[in-house]
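Data deposition worksheet. Section B asks for the primary sequence of the deposited chain exactly as it was used as input, without tags or linkers unless they were present during the calculation. Section C holds the resulting structure in token form. Section D is free text for depositor observations; keep each observation to a single sentence. Incomplete worksheets are returned to the depositor.
Section A, Depositor: J.P.
Section B:
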Amino acid sequence: MLTLLAALQGEADAILSRAQDISAREAFGKTIYTGHCGGPFRLIVTGVGKSNAAAGAMLALALDAAEAGGRSVLASVGTAGGLNQKAPVGCVTAAVRAVQFDVDLSPVNHTPQGTLNEYETPYIPLCEAKGFPPVTLATADRFGDGRDAALLRSLGCDVQDMEGAAVAHVAERAGVPCYAFKAISDNADDDGGRAYYENLRIALDALGRAVPAMFAACKEAE
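Section C:
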């Protein structure tokens, strides 16, 4: 079953506004929606940050194992900061790879920053979604404000969020397809907080309009 994972209720609402037959319940401290949008789907509001996102992704896989049967597909959806001209405010991107750039095991593993212990490269692969600008997603447990600009440029990152790479990691280890759709709400290397609130509505509107294309792309993996 396709499960969308959104950090915030506002991001979830942008998706649900385009869906039908919606129902909701609470489990393990998270709100779980089910509905239809060209097919059945689940949406979990995970909360902000990597641990919340990973917990939501594992919950989705557990629910599939217990309830849905068939193949699991995960998608991290929401807003994010753009790092360059590939990701302007209001654009909806689809990451083809992600990196947890705040992970640094280089003193012991001698691997590049962002490389998890299970990998030899910083990058976790994601499914390509046709019709969306392909980007490299950077994830860390902090809001983008430009402090990591040099590191993110060295990693070739285009977009920054606080959840996507954690979802990608869970999916990769579980062997299930994973997408990451991010609507750009601010320039992450600019005046982060002010720009974020000014442009959030634009990003959420764009995310809602992109729902049919997002679901169509994910169907290719089901």
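Section D:
Residues 2-219 form a domain with the Rossmann fold fold (CATH 3.40.50.1580).
Residues 92 and 183 are 4 Å apart (CA to CA).
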